[in-house]
Structure formats: C-alpha cells, structure tokens
Amino acid sequence: MISLHTHPLRRSLNDEAHARPPVAIPSPARLTTLTLFFDDAELEQRAAMQDLASRLGLPQPEPGQVHYTGVAGDLTVRWALHTEFARYSFVLSGDFVEPFERTPLDRLPGDWLGRLPGELMVATHAVLLPADQEAPAAEIAQRWFGGHDLIGAEIGDGNGVAYTDLRLHPDPRLAEGFSRFVLIDRDMGPSQSGRMVQRLFEMETYRLLALLALPEAKRQMRELDRLGTLLRRVTLRMAQQQGHDASMLDELTDLSAQGEQLIAQSQYRFAAARAYYQLVGRRIDELRERRLSGLQPFHEFMERRLGPAMETCATAVRRQERLMTRLQRSTALLRTRVEVVHEEQNRALLASMDRRAALQLRLQETVEGLSVGVLTYYAVGLLGYLFKAGKAAGLHLNVELLTGLAIPLVALTVWLGMRRVKRGLQH
C-alpha cells in the first residue's frame, strides 16, 4: 500500500459529486416536497429529521450529514439540508385513485408535521403517471388544475411530459394550499423519472427563494428615491453656495451612512437571488424540454415572469452603486471646498502672525535699547562708587570726570555684550 500524505478534505470533496443523488421513481407514484426556510436553526432541522427517522423505524442520519434517504415500505423519505433551507421529499409508489386527495403526507405523523421548524416556503404535490394514462392538456387542466392555463412541455427529449399551473390549490393539511405537478412517464424509466422530478422540485424551490429578494428590492427603491431627493437638495445648496459647508458635510455623511446601511441589509439577499435565478435556468436546461402546442414551456414562462423580478433586483443594486458614487463625489467636492476655505483662513492667520512677529521684533529692539541705557546707568553708578572709594582711600581722582568718561565705554561694552548674547541664542 502506498503511504502518502492525504489532504484532509479529499474524501469529502470527492463525495461531493454524489451529493443529493436522485431517487429512482417507478410510475405510478405520488410525491410531496416541503421546503422550510430557516435562520440559524440547523440543529433544529437535524433534530426534526432524526425524530422522523425514529418514528418511521428508519436508520438515523449520520452526524454532519446534509442529505438522507430512507425507505419505509412503499414510502421513500428524502431530506436535504442547505445553507438557509431544508427540503423534505416523500415518494409513495403504487396505484391510487385521486393523487391529490391521498398524498404521502398521510403516512407521516401529524404532530411531527405540525412541529416542523422553520417557515414553509414551498409545498408541492406531484403525480407520476404511466404512458397509458396520458391525456390531453385540456383534460388534465380540468381534472387537477381547476381549468387554469397550464405551463408544460415534453421533457427528457420527449420521453416524458410535465404540467403545472404554479398556483396554490386547496388542501386540508395546509390553509394556503399546495402547488401541483403532473408528469407523464412515456419512456423515461425510474432513474430518469427521479432526475426529472428532482429538477422540477428544485426549479420551484429556487424560483420562490429567488423571489424573496423582490419585496426587499421594492422597499429599497423607495428608500433610494428618498435618499436621492435629499442628495439633490444638498448638491443644489452647494451649487448656490447656500448654507454652512460643515452642516452640509454632516448631511452628506449621514446620507452615506444610510446608503451603506441599505446595502448591508440587502447585499446577501440580492446575491442569493442571482444565484437562485441561475439555478432555475440550469434546472430548466436540464429538463431538455420541447414545446407542446398551445402551452408555454417552463423556460419561456420563467423568462416572462421571473426575469422581470430579477431585473428589478438588479436595478436596485445598480441604483445603490450609483447613489453611493454620487455621494462620494459630492462629499469629495464639498471636502475640497472646505479645505480651500481652511487654507485661506490659515494663510490669513499666518499673515497676521507675521505682522505680530514683526511688531514684537520692533518692541524687542526698543526694549533692548532701553535695556542698554538701564544697564549702563547702573554700571556707571557702580563705577562712581568705586571712584569715590578710591578717592577716599587717598587717591587723587576726579570722580565726576572719570564717571563721565566711563559712560560711553560702559554703554559700548553693554551693547556689544547684548549683541553677542543675541547671536548665541539665534544659533
């Protein structure tokens, strides 16, 4: 056996190719899927699946497992855990009379269904019929869709047919009702039928999850209109030079903070909507549909109904970006104007300081002249006392004459000394 250092994620990455595999579904069969949207409730979702497995006598899911399949008699249970939603799929094989009156949910504990954590986002019943039960689209619409216009196409390169009206139909188990799908197995076989059912269920799930961003986009449009109006008022005052610059700068800063808050509130939802919309398109492509006469195929319906909603979300994102760009430009312009005003004020302040410095210099020179006189006066007075002391000691000195002659010498000495000290301080 070769001994190599294996990357710790090697097995999990390899097994990702087999994550959430479809279940083979022979016709006829009834199916139900429930998608529960949750916010930070992963442990509760796992506990619910473990509880159901225990009640149905199925093996327990492994710790950390994100998809599970169990078979209890003619009932197949599938569970898949995603980032923000959990999906349950129930398949009941065998003949039936009315597929939407007796469904796989009848095999589940009622109290367990009533305590499922999260918010129900998708609830769909489906029926898979063999080829000998195929009927015209108009008959299927009258029988199971209340006569509504159908959306449908041949799928799997013509090996099957799928119909739906994407409406919520009454159901005693749920007040708001279930959506419905009818599939005809012309020549798909169990494996392809399972893949097609899974793609249809995922298409419906991702469609509604993508539409979660639409109410937020509409709310954001109103908020962006309000912020845009406030920004136009501020920029108009800037152009007309009305109002205090500092006050307008505070207003722009507040508008920027509100804009950033809008982006923070919607960034994840809009990004998720784009991803879900792309997944809807991929699942429709994987159906390999062909048009049925008189019916809208899935791709056309989604482009006409879901596409505009996603474009609304994309428009909200672009408006956010444009608004923040305008705010940045306006703030930069106003900051530049404030800085120019501050520069002019600083220049005037420096000129005033230069004038004061020159005045102080003249005052200092005046004080220096007075200081020379004062120091000379005191120095000459001291010399006078010295001359008097010498005369008293018997020296023949003319005190008045010597004192008078000392004045210019002392003054010159004091002046030279002060200049020397001043030069020393300047260096």
Describe the structure.
The protein has 427 residues and is α+β, with helices and mostly antiparallel strands. The chain has helices at residues 10-15, 42-56, 110-114, 137-144, 189-211, 213-240, 245-287, 298-392, 399-426; strands at 29-37, 67-72, 75-81, 85-93, 119-130, 151-155, 160-164, 169-171, 174-185, 290-291. Strand 2 (67-72) and strand 3 (75-81) form a beta hairpin. It is elongated, with a radius of gyration of 45 Å. The mean pLDDT is 87. It comes from Vogesella facilis. The chain crosses the membrane at residues 369-387, 399-418. Keywords: Membrane, Transmembrane, Transmembrane helix. Pfam families: DUF3422.
List the helices and strands and how they pair.
Layout (H helix, E strand, L loop, with lengths): L9 H6 L13 E9 L4 H15 L10 E6 L2 E7 L3 E9 L16 H5 L4 E12 L6 H8 L6 E5 L4 E5 L4 E3 L2 E12 L3 H23 L1 H28 L4 H43 L2 E2 L6 H95 L6 H28 L1
Parallel strand pairs: 5-9
Antiparallel strand pairs: 1-4, 1-5, 2-3, 3-4, 6-7, 6-10, 7-9, 8-9
Helix pairs in contact: 5-7, 6-7, 6-8, 7-8, 8-9
